[in-house]
Amino acid sequence: MIKINFIIILVISIFFEITLSSSVDGNYPAGGLYFGVSSNFFAGESEKFTQYVQNELLSMDLPDQSGDSDGVQYSFTHFKLALDLQDFFYAQLGSGVFQMGWDTITFNLQWEYEICVKKVVKVCESGTITVYTTSGQSVSLGTTLDVLFNTSNAKIEATTTVMPFESGAVVASVHCTDSVCLIPINDIVSEVSSQFVSQVTNGVTKAINEKAPSIEQLFTPIKQIPITMNSGNQYWIDLEGCLVEANYSSNSPSTITAAINGGIVLENTDGNYVYPTQTPSYVPYDSQMESFTSDYCVTITGYFIESLLDAVLVPEFPMTINPSQVPQASPVQLNTSDDFFSGVAPNLTTKYPNQGIQVNLMPPTIPTVSINSSAIILTDFEISTSFLVLTDDDAIPVFNVLFKFDAEISTTVYTDSVSVFSLNSTLLSITPNVTITDSNVGSVDASGFVQLIEIVQSVIKIPSITYPVPSKYSITNVNSQLGDQIIQLTFDLIENSNNLKKSVNFN
After folding, report:
1. Is the N or C terminus of the chain more exposed, i.e. has fewer CB atoms within 10 Å?
2. Greater confidence, 330 or 22?
3. How far is Cα 35 from Cα 154, in angstroms, rounded to an integer?
């Protein structure tokens, strides 16, 4: 069998940024995170890649071939290839199945040949063989992909590649340059032509699978939340979801968004996974998801924040605070004779003078998160606490307090480098509501706890979280805004950019 190995060059292939996917056309599911890649970005990258492939093929040395097929000795030399790929596309074939490729391919593959047959005498002939596409006929290339977004990863797999063409669209011709041309070589030419197609299609399938991780990472740049807690737990993003093709796009290729669950999955130190107790309910408007003009758009909904609070805070409780854990510089000390406690619970000080106080905090009720153009709003955050007096022999319950909070948070985006950005949040306001649910020491003034919360509000710090951008890219032109139930970050993706330092405030 004749093998034309140089065709594997054609597969260096199918391109880091080509984005084929299983998509749901214009139907966005409820979720916590959405990663959108614009049609402009796809169009620009596909054009650059197409030109890159053509230039590489035209500049490569193509190896000579020789062998013996059915008693016919052949030698193929001086390969020349012209190739033009046009009209890049991707299209949905069905649920979880997509196809990408070029609608129009023209090529001209030519090489010199010498073929010899020895019967009574050895007879040889030489000339050129050309395999080419004919003008006005349709030849295309398409690869089928299966795309799966499961809980922990996105998987893109190319299954088959085909090169469909009409009868007569690909022609193989032989031009004998000798004075006498008697050797029938149609079978060899047909075999070479057939292998040209199979080498291309098999190689493209293989190449896409080799590059699939970089395509997957484009749609799932964030998999783990970089937060460290005393418990040692780790926090992962639930990546289950799908790709959604823009509903109203007139561009080709169109904008595609990875719509993922976006809930935070807790991995505890025993290696067990705990999934969010919440479920996403808000579905962004098409216009919110498709109107951006930058290369890339990250959309965050309240569900992401709710599940993040649930995963990070709840496992840290119940929590106990003892007097030794309170810094000396704190305005309130856990002692019954402290000015704060003698003011809010005078009978406590009288009954148990100069005794330590232990505070037990129960697991909180996670707030509902809503978003408007001014702030992120947390509603109905609740936490129950028990106050106990520490005697020499025991811890004696004295009163219980239920704290309820509503809060407003602003967020600023920083890009400290071209490969990461961070969300830095500030507590704008907090509205506490305090209820004394039980007391063994008479009257306890709830307003005192309200005043205490208002005093410490100014020193409450919300940890910032750093996120990577898709690998192999840098970011520029960063913008951000709060909208109707969403936070959106948009930026352009570039390669080999210099570092930048900028801050973008929501307003």
Report:
1. N
2. 330
3. 13
